[in-house]
Structures are given as C-alpha cells and as structure tokens.
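Case study.
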Amino acid sequence: MSWPEIILRLALVLGAFLLLPLIVGQLEHKAMAHMQSRLGPMYAGGFHGWAQLIADGVKFAQKEAVTPKAADRLVFALAPGVALVPYLVVLIVIPIGPGDAVGQALDVGIFFVLAVTGVGVLGTLMAGWASANKFSLLGGLRTAAQLMAYELPMVLAAASVAMAAGTLSLTGIVEEWRPWWLIWQFAAGFVFFIGGLAELQRPPFDMPVADSEIIFGPYTEYTGLRFALFLLAEYAGIVVLSALTAVLFLGGWKGPFDDQLGWLWTLTKTMALSFVVIWLRVSYPRLREDQLQKFAWAGLIPVALLQLALTGVVKVL
Amino acid sequence: MIAPVDVPGKGLAKGLAVTWQHLTRRSVTQQYPDVLPELPPRSRGVIALFEENCTVCMLCARECPDWCIYIDSHKEVIPAKEPGARDRTRNVLDRFAIDFSLCMYCGICIEVCPFDALFWSPEFEYSEFDIRDLTHEKDRLREWMWTVPPPPAPDPAGDESKEAALARAAVEKAAVASGERPVRGDRGEDGGKGEARSGG
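After joint prediction, the assembly is written out as follows.
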C-alpha cells in the first residue's frame, strides 16, 4: 500500500468513527422517545432536532473539567482516552465489503478485535479507581466482575464461528459464511451479541453505572469533555459490537448485488443491530448484580460451550 | 384439560412488543409553543370582566376565598329628570383587578355575580416573568371578554327566559305604537307568559 492510500483509508475509518456513533446516538434519542410516546429532540438544527448531539458536544466542551482533589490525576485524565481509542483501532480491521474494503486486513482479525475491545473496558476500571470516590470504586469493581463474566462467553462464541469458517480473518469468515449458518450459529450469535452488550454496560446490563444506587458508577466524577468522551465511547462501542456481530454472524456484506452494494449491506446490518441495542435498552429493566452474574455463568457460558460442541460435531461430520 | 404452556421468553417478547407498538403509534407530546393545544371551547383559562354589567355590588370580592379581587368605586349623582323628583346616585367602577398569582381558579366569583359581569375565558397565555405583573386591571380583563365564547343557544323546548320575553314584549309594543301589525314571534302570543307551560 502506498502512503496516500494508507492515509485515505485511515481518514475514512476516522470519518466512520466520528459519524456512526453520532448517528446511533441520534437514533437512540429519537427511537427511545417514540417508544415512550414522546418526540425527543425537535429544535436543534431545525429539522427534528438532527443537530442535538452536536449541540450537546458544544455544551460539553464549554463545561469546566473538574478533577477531584484526591484523584490519581494522571490515571483520571487518561481513562476517557483508554475507553475510546480501542474502538477506533477495532474499526480499522472490520471489513465492510468484499476484497480489500477494509482499513487493514489482519489474518488474526478476530483475535485482535476481541483483545482490543477488552482494553476499552480498562478505561472504565481506571476511571473507577482514579476518581477517589466510593461510588466510582464500586462501579469499577462491578465493571471488573462484568468484564470477567462476559468476556468468556463472547470469546467462546467467536471461537465457534472461527471454527466453523476455519479461519481467524474477519474477511475470511464472511467469505466462508453461508445463509444456513444463521441457524447453525444462532446460539453463538445470540451469546456474542448479549455478551457484548453486557461488556458495553448497556441497559439491561448497566449495573456498573446503576444511577439509582451508585450515582453514575465510574463516571460519577467526570465532567465536561472527558465525560463526553466516555459517552462517545459507549456509542462507538455499540457501533463496533453491531458491526462485529454483523460480520461474524449475519454474513457482513453478503446479500443481493453484494458485488456493488456490499458496503451498504454491512452498514444496514450494523444499523439494524444498533437499533436492537436501543430497543433492548428501552424495553427491559436493569438486572440485579447477582442476576447479572448468574446469567453469564449459568446461562451464556453453557450455551456457548454447547454451541462450540455442536460446531465441532458438524464440522467433523 | 391442558394447562396453559409457559413459553420461556414470552415475557421478554411481550416487553419488546409493547415498545414496538409505541414506536409505530403517534406520540402524545403536545408541541405547545409551536402548535396551540385544542382545548374544549369552555376551558377555564382566565376570568374576564364584562365591565358594562358590573354594579360594584362587591359580591365577587367578598366571596373570593383568597381575596384576590380588588374593587374601587365612587358614587355619582344623576340629577333628577323632572322638577321635584329626587336625585339618584349610581356606582361607578374605578378599579377592578384580579391578582392571578393568588387566584385559585375556583370560579366562585363567576357563580356569584348576579349581573353576569364575570365570565370564564379559554385564554391561558398570560404568564409573566414577575409575579407582581400577574395582577391584571379592568382594561385587560375587559379585553379577555372578546375571547369568551357566546352563551349556548336556549333549549327550544324550554321556557322562554324572562329577559327575552320582556324584550319581545317591548318590540311588539313599539310596533303597535307605530301602527304596524304586531310582529309574531316564533312562540306565538302566549309564549312568554309562563302560563302556557308549567316551568320545570
């Protein structure tokens, strides 16, 4: 690859990274509002409040960045970056179309993606520890417990699809994918999506930030732009999770006319899954901490293991 | 008998269905400053004063539970029309104000007014930045009179009102005096006396 091409690809990935979370955020504003029989933002930008998140960003930028006196200042300042950057890095390796329609194709794509998304959660842990606040620390510990509980079923589910495709490369997995995998790998897709949801601490798995108990968990002490970065990380996380689920389990760019419109299929599947993430948030109440742990260890992990066994048996036959 | 089967995940699906249904229906939000609400015509928004009917009898001010009506008046002498007769006096309304920061919109003043000088108006957009500006004087109260909907038409099966009967009688008398044939009302000649029908 020549230098201009690398720069162009990175610019495109950065553009997607800046644009898609905002679209998902706006979708959340509007879809959630209508699911609650409200209208949501209507003023900012004139047409149905399309510029609401831009206005929010401007507002956050104007706010004072407060650091608690007893905080571990360096870790406190680094945490939002650690939470956000991994999702940008992951976006580079997610293919949106056939061939080399990907920021940088990696042979160990799935391995890389799972490793790096795990780093994103570290940002939350750092925030919880560095804030010098009991609520933040509690939230941080819950995050840690949640990371341990849900990373495992996610990895098992991803292993199942990698086994089925016989490759670790994301592009390779999509190329191997056949529509009947929707049934064969259904349990794995379910576990992966739910586990990812829990790892993003999205409702109904938002115990680490349970506002009625521990204010806002690890983010309690954050203000201004740093807080905005955490919010952006959450929405970038939704995009990454939806894109990964689409690529691994829904056939990525596969669909009618996929030689020209492949990228559109990937985007459509990603946005549809993002909508499901929002839909789940609106529909379900928050799980209690013990329910949350039980759901992972007694629910998702056995299902993932069974799926792994099933994949192995079908593969051998 | 077969017991109803509890399908696992039924409750979860139901939750999703509820939110989906709300998504597809129109939202209930009122976009008030942009779109005016469609209120019933006789909504009780503000109290309007029909100043011409007011006789300064003070009943409204005295009945008001939180004393939010302020009335000032003076007496005016009307000179006698014929020599030897007594001069008459008349109450003139100087100030009629309602403090809407105190008013609790009970409507007792409107009920109690014997001369139909107070009315409910559906107008509701009179908020102020300063609570002291919520005391509205009689000119403002008179302006709101224009927003009061006309009274409902009388029941065609009911008795004619005393006022209407009097007015009709006066018109007929004037017609007879000017030598024309009496104008027949809708209700015939015995309609207004109250003898034809026993009043309910």
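Observations recorded in class. The radius of gyration of chain A is 20 Å. The first helix of chain A runs from residue 3 to 35. We will return to this complex in the next lecture.
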